[in-house]
Design goal:
single chain, 4-stranded antiparallel beta sheet, mainly beta
């Protein structure tokens, strides 16, 4: 897919940067990871830096009789995050908390995500609804990812925080 920069699946907004199920494990180590999203990708008017460290995400894959992965569950605490507006220097920080992500691998190759807990979802201009947006969801958020890596939000329950607005 688009690499490790698509979704911030977070615990209390601490989280997993990922576009694929395997990439999410990279956020569960003690090293500090920094990702910069150019203006127009994660937030409309400024470059967004995401810095995370710590946390422990466990991944479990479920296979069918032929050995194909059909479902993946990611659970644990993600890293503590600091999101920074690189134009103004404003920051939004989140502690490490818990979240669970269920990913169904559909027969047509698409993915269906259901994330519970504290999660950040970054939507690009090509997604549905169209980004750029970076949103903290506390509760549950569901979305699909098609073969072209287009994310389509399908459900949301709970509270949400527009990170781009918070950093403006």
């Amino acid at each position: 897919m688009r690499g490790m920069t698509r979704r911030l699946g977070i615990a209390a907004a601490a989280a997993t940067l990922a576009a694929s199920t395997v990439a999410t494990a990279a956020w569960g180590d003690s090293a500090t990871t920094v990702q910069v999203f150019p203006a127009g990708v994660a937030c409309a008017d400024f470059d967004l830096q995401v810095e995370g460290s710590g946390g422990t995400i466990k991944q479990h894959a479920f296979t069918d009789r032929s050995g194909q992965v059909v479902r993946v569950v990611l659970a644990g605490t993600g890293p503590a995050l600091t999101l920074t507006n690189l134009t103004s220097g404003a920051t939004y920080s989140t502690p490490s908390n818990g979240s669970v992500t269920h990913i169904a691998v559909n027969p047509d190759g698409t993915l269906t995500y259901r994330m519970t807990g504290h999660n950040i979802l970054i939507l690009y201009p090509t997604d549905v609804p169209a980004g750029p947006s970076t949103t903290l969801y506390v509760g549950q958020v569901g979305f699909t990812v098609d073969a072209n890596a287009v994310f389509t939000v399908t459900s949301m329950a709970g509270r949400s925080v527009d990170i781009c607005t918070a950093l403006s």
